Every structure is written in structure tokens, then in C-alpha cells.
């Protein structure tokens, strides 16, 4: 049995405001959930759920996870950038040279994301949210490949990527060197067993794959918190 990727979870100082930004940028309607805070439901069978959960501390330092948005045309890239700025985003400097082709932006709480240039063949057909781009080792890419049961679609020069058999956004890991960690990761993957699944059995399987148990209650009292082989925390939720 494998777990399912339940959501890309974002710790937010102001969840409602941040969800509004991403709802406007991605063209989705937020849903209010008593357990999950504000959520942007998946846009189709292979889409990613994005949820915004309250956090007590502001963002510090560059995130180790960000979204890559795709562009069908050069004009489309410019329009996405302009829409993000209009919604309250800004240009961000993470050390890029300026000639990469993609545009680095940040949302209203400083979470970085990229708007890719048209013609990106690696993310062709993945949708507007083309990738969840993670700073991580080859080993952690292998871990998530086994944890989710998603095929490896890239494994070269210590860079890895997986993708759901249904398609949709890829999850990528860029290999070393890894960015420094600034406290708890504000953007992280959360998983859940399928309906009727055995969560404790799945936690045991994750531990056997190289995860470590951290504790409980990152967002809800019954969340089981574990960390992948790179030390990135994520929650194993009750079956949905």
C-alpha cells in the first residue's frame, strides 16, 4: 500500500489573505475547512490541493520548496507576472543572474515562486502549476518515489523528479548543495492513507524507508509528524 499526497501545505501568518493571492493567481476558488484552514481544491483529477494553515511566526530566509508556474507563450508569462504583482506579489532576488528566462517572484508573505518561460519541455503537459520544486538530495527523491509510489521521471546528476501516474505537476529535487534551514519549513508536503487505510502501518513503512518520527500535532492534535531523510517535516494525516 502507498500513501496519497494530500496537499501542499503552507504555513501562513495571514491564511485568508495568502489564500486570496493564490486563488487569484491560479484561478481557483478557496474553500473553508474547519480542519484544514483555507484550501484551494485540486483543479482536476491530477491537480494539487494547496492549503493555508495558521502559523505564529513570519517567514525567515529562503524556502526550500516553491512552485513553478508554466507559460504557453511569452505574452502569457508576462501576463502571469503582471497578475501576480497586481495581487500583491513582488519580484524576488535569490541570486539569479537575470538571464535565466524564468521570473522569480514572491507572494505577500515572501514565499518564492517562479514563472517559467514558454517552451519549457520538461514540464510540458503538466498544467499551469508545473512543478513543486524542492531543494533536496537524490536520496530524498528516491524516498518519495517509494513513499507515494509515483514513477521517477528524472534521475540524473543527483537531480530527481517524480510524477503521479495520472499526470499533473511533477515534484522535483535539485540535489546538493542544500539551502540552510530557517526553523520549520513553511511549505511542506502532507500525506494521508487512502480511505480505510491503516495509518500506523503506513507510518511504519515510511520509517522503514528512512523517515524519522518527530511527534504529533503540527497543525491538528492527531497529525503524526515525521521527517524525510533530508530532515524535512511532513504530516501523515488520518485517512480521508
Describe the structure.
It holds the Pfam family Glyoxalase_6. This is Glyoxalase-like domain-containing protein. InterPro entries: Glyas_Bleomycin-R_OHBP_Dase (IPR029068), Glyoxalase_6 (IPR041581), VOC_core (IPR037523). With about 240 residues, this protein is of the alpha+beta class. It has a domain at about 5-175: Roll (2,3-Dihydroxybiphenyl 1,2-Dioxygenase, domain 1), CATH 3.10.180. It has four helices and 16 strands. The strands form two sheets. Strands 2-3-4-1-13-16-15-14 form an eight-stranded mixed β-sheet. Strand 15 and strand 16 (about 235) form a beta hairpin. It is globular and about 50 Å long.
CATH fold-level assignment of the domain at 7-173: 2,3-Dihydroxybiphenyl 1,2-Dioxygenase, domain 1
What order do the SSEs take from the amino end to the carboxyl end, as H and E? Answer: EHEEEEHEEEEHEEEEHEEE
Spatially, the strands of the biggest sheet line up as 2-3-4-1-13-16-15-14
Proportion of residues in extended strands: 25-35%
Rounded radius of gyration (Å): 17 Å
Instruction: Indicate the CATH architecture of the domain at 7-173.
Output: Roll
Stretches where pLDDT is under 50 for at least 5 consecutive residues are none
* General form: globular
Kindly state the number of beta strands.
16
Largest sheet: 8 strands, mixed
How many alpha or pi helices?
A: 4
Binned, the helix content reads: 10-25%
